[in-house]
Amino acid sequence: MQDTYSRRNFLRLSAALLAGGAAVMTGAPGRALGMGTISGRGEPEDHGPISFVKGYCPFCQTRCTYQAQVRNGMVESLIGEKDNRWTGGSMCPKGLSMVELVNSPYRLTEPMLHQPDGSWKRISYEEALQITATKVRECLDKHGSKAGDRMAMTMPLWDCRESELAAVMTLHLAGCVHTMPPGETCTSTCANMLTAMTGTGNCTTTVNEVCNAQTLLLWGANINDLYPPYTRWLEKARAGGTKIIYIDPRKTRTSLWCTTQLQPLPGTDGALALGAIRYIFDHGAFDDAKARTLITDLDNLKEDAAPYTPEKVQEITGVPVNAILEVYAAIASSPRTILWLGGALARYTNGIPTVRALIFLQALTDNIFGSGRGILTMQSGKPGGEDEFVDALLGPLDKAKMNFRRLRMAMEKGNLDILFLQSSYRRYPDCENVRKAIEKVPFVVHRGCFMTEETEAADLFIPNVLSPETAGSGYGNEKQIVWREKIVDAPGSCVPDWQFYRDLGIALFGDKYPNFKDPADLYQKFVSIVPSWKGMTLDRLRKSPDGLVWPIYEENGEEHIGNVFSDGKLLTPEGTMTVQDRVFGRVKWTYPKGSPLGKDRDEKYPLVFTQGKVLWHWQQTMTNFSKELAQYSEGRFVSINPKTAAEYNLVQGEKVLLETFVGSLEAWVDISPEIIPGIIFTPSHCTASSPLEQNRSPHINTILPNYWDRISCQHNGVGCALRKINA
Q1: Cis before 551 (ω within 30)
Q2: Which positions ≥6 away from 413 have C-beta within 8 Å?
Q3: Helix (H) or strand (E) holding 352
Q4: Which letter, b or e, does each residue of 301-336 get, where b requires 16 or more Cβ atoms within 10 Å of its Cβ?
Q5: Sign of CA dihedral 445, 388, 576, 210
Q6: CB-based burial, 37-47: b 16+ in 10 Å, e otherwise
Q7: Exposed, middle or buried, 625 (CB in 10 Å: 0-12/13-18/19+)?
Q8: Which residues are CB-contacts of 306 (< 8 A; sequence separation ≥ 6)?
């Protein structure tokens, strides 16, 4: 482990990597991370004409665009689009791994039907389509108008946006509206609170505006590891004099770009935010008249923040009073502040009051409207128009949608007949019991690329394509829509999601299904129907190096970037936000459920659990199959402070059991002063189905409880313990 530890510290401290975690990697194939060691279809030949085809990365919401270098029908490299205004031509290791993944020897390329003895039988795509159509017809015949309630889909369909549209149309005709959004595990809390309080569930400004802010608050937003290409905006902002304040229990690569960092105990951000609100009231650092035009019951906010004195905030968060006051003073005196909400804020059962408090803080300090002001989020950007399009073509379905918590209950009770398992069930806490619920569904179809736990849970597997193997559009954090041409042919019988769900829709419903020949055809139908897309023509999209920012209502209309409130008004029906919410009540902060800091603590689990993504991995079902990324992965580790290590008598690299009241799994200890005492951090990506030892471990959600707030499932803040394996 000594070599691993040395490498980890080098990566932590290397400013070159910090700036270039998003670097474009060039050189001979196989010599640089991301250039792609071509495996599975042989090494590329050094002769033949080279062509360049436009594409985009399907992973995070940065949505990097690139030019794919193609020779002899194979992708040799990806070169970041230099004219992309959001990324500057940079790409991160995750996106660059697509070269290797497209040619991976681990890919499954033929449909398979699970046999009663547990084996798999290879079948044709046509047989797989027919089996699926037969199962859906049987459900429709048996349950009639109620059949739609007995079908569901877990999303995303990540190869392109047109795949989502094709699938939604098929389910819509079957009377089903139950499509589980991936945001239930990462963004739903932020998106829903932003919608309720400001009228938009996306970012209220664009990332370029951080350069116009006096203060940038990165609240749990680890930009350098999660959105590496956006590090350039931190660099630009800091060079222009923007004060960058970072709030995170760990020091990360992002820390090196920041002016100040506070390291509160996980799950205490809401108390820190309410303390800032109290400070603003106490020091009169706000315009009372302006605040009351935004917040209808401002006095309620003052009352809710009153208990959070600096001393109380120190007691709750563990941050010294002097550090708290320094940050509060900076917030109070800043005329232009942008708040960047990290996805981690939504991963605690108290995420709703935390996010509400932070939005109120922006409103109180007059940082909602105008340049250099606003709110950014992680994994935002989904444009509107989907429901409008489907309803226009097929008529509305007046049904309440299910979230995954209710879907799980339906599966457990035997009330679901068909599940289209598009995304990983392991994204949900208590995923072992999620798997048991899925096993009660009579017919499960999985669309994937590799042999994963989802494949094993399915009755029918139909191989999907990887993103360079189909054309289509995608959306990014700035609400930008980008276009990708088909770059290479898919192997074997792999077909894109849009094709499968189109074929299924036609097989089931004939002419009732809105037929289209390819993603370009469907995109143009969409633009012709949805007014907010009228100016986002395919021709314009194809010519743009970084896409078009939605919405554009006129055919030759200009994009609007920057603050979305161009009229200086919120987009809520009343144009205001309210503290006394009819659903969520007042802003009352408590410790997260199961926290060892709260009243329901269990003394057997005294450490605070946290997990998250790392620079080298995004989705466990994809990047875990990259050999090139695996060389930078350390498997299942737990980062702990030296004081925590001393309490447990642990040394660097020692094997331990990471335990919660749900279960335990094996990990190795990484001792780091960059994480505060009393907490652990472990990566999210590892999974038991990875063929690469560096990424192989039972998924972390196997030992997390089935905790939800009213909106989303929760992953962080519960109690845990470490136990020596030989003890």
Answers
A1: yes
A2: none
A3: helix 351-364
A4: bbebbeebbbeebbebbbbeeebbeebbebbbebeb
A5: positive
A6: ebeeeeebeee
A7: buried
A8: 278
In this structure, what token pair is assigned to residue 129?
């389509």
Main-chain phi, psi angles of 581, to 5 degrees: -80, 140
Question: Which residue's entry shows tokens 């070269």?
Answer: 99
Strand 337-341 relative to strand 374-377, pairing: parallel
Query: Closest Cα to residue 33, out of 41, 43, 23?
Result: 23
Per-residue pLDDT at 701 exceeds 50: yes
3-state secondary structure of 444: strand
Q: Which two tokens stand for residue 386?
A: 């989907």
Q: How many CB atoms lie within 10 A of CB 94?
A: 27
Backbone angles phi, psi at 38, to 5 degrees: -75, 115
HEC per residue, 448-462: ECECCHHHHHCCEEE
* Residue-wise pLDDT tens digits, 271-310: 999 999 999 999 999 999 999 999 999 999 999 999 999 9
In 3D space, the residue among 362, 296, 385 whose CA is nearest the CA of residue 563 turns out to be 362
pLDDT digits (tens, 9 = 90+) for 221-245: 999 999 999 999 999 999 999 999 9
pTM of the model: 0.93
pLDDT band at 182 (very low <50, low <70, confident <90, very high): confident
**pLDDT by residue (tens digit) across 596-609?**
999 989 999 999 99
- Beta bridge partners, 309, equal none
